[in-house]
Amino acid sequence: MRNNAIHAVTGAFGYSGRYIATRLLTEGCSVITLTNSPARTNPFGGQVKALPLAFDQPDQLAAALAGVEVLYNTYWVRFNHATFTHEQAVKNTLVLFAAARRAGVRKIVHVSITNPSEDSPLEYFAGKAKLERALQESGMNHAILRPTVLFGREDILINNIA
Ligand SMILES: NC(=O)c1ccc[n+]([C@@H]2O[C@H](COP(=O)([O-])OP(=O)(O)OC[C@H]3O[C@@H](n4cnc5c(N)ncnc54)[C@H](OP(=O)(O)O)[C@@H]3O)[C@@H](O)[C@H]2O)c1
Predict the structure, then answer these.
(1) pLDDT at residue 58 above 90?
(2) Which residue, 20, 73, 82, 151, is the most exposed by fewest CB within 10 angstroms?
(3) Which domain holds residue 34?
């Protein structure tokens, strides 16, 4: 990992994205974020430039990724909402992968889930499996992480159970 290279993290004002961005900054890397929440307080100040996750404007997305060496993709939606579904998150992620490819991003680190399966009746797991296959078939250099649960202070799942 070249420290002077640009690293793009989706959702750096969110949960795992914030920790990834922090770690990269600690390593001396230049970091940008692609986010759905550009108006949210930027905990990194001027250290992390925020650009929109403009899925409806692929050219803008590709331009935002120009010069990026590694894209860390945490983008996903935990639950289906009335106006936003896992199916839409899959489509959006495919737009992001295509934009990264066009921009010449050298590697995608993609956060998936444990036991993804296209046969799963759970859209979360089926959608994640579709994205893994798309990334594998894209020919792009990539790494896929399959965590079971990410536990920390801001975690909703375990803290709610506790
Ligand atoms: N948390 C866990 O325990 C866990 C376990 C296994 C796998 N994972 C995977 O790890 C990745 C990151 O998880 P996380 O818990 O850190 O997620 P998160 O911070 O809540 O969200 C990550 C990203 O998804 C976007 N996003 C979330 N909900 C959205 C919505 N309703 N509409 C539009 N955008 C939305 C966020 O947008 P903004 O840019 O607006 O912040 C951010 O870019 C995900 O791919 C998840 O499937 C998480």
Answers:
(1) yes
(2) 82
(3) 6-161
33 within ligand 1 shell (Cβ under 6 A): no
The domain total for the chain is 1
User: What separation in Å is there between the alpha carbon of 17 and the centre of ligand 1?
Assistant: 8
- 109: part of which helix (H) or strand (E)? strand 107-111
User: Which CATH number goes with the domain that contains 149?
Assistant: 3.40.50.720
| Nearest residue (CA) to ligand 1, atom 25 | 75
- Please report whether residue 1 resides in a domain: no
Q: Return phi, psi of residue 94, to 5°.
A: -65, -35
Any domain includes 54: yes
d(CA 150, CA 15): 9
- Asked if pLDDT for residue 49 goes beyond 80, the answer is yes
116 C-beta closer than 6 A to ligand 1? no
- Residue 1 clears pLDDT 70, i.e. is over it: no
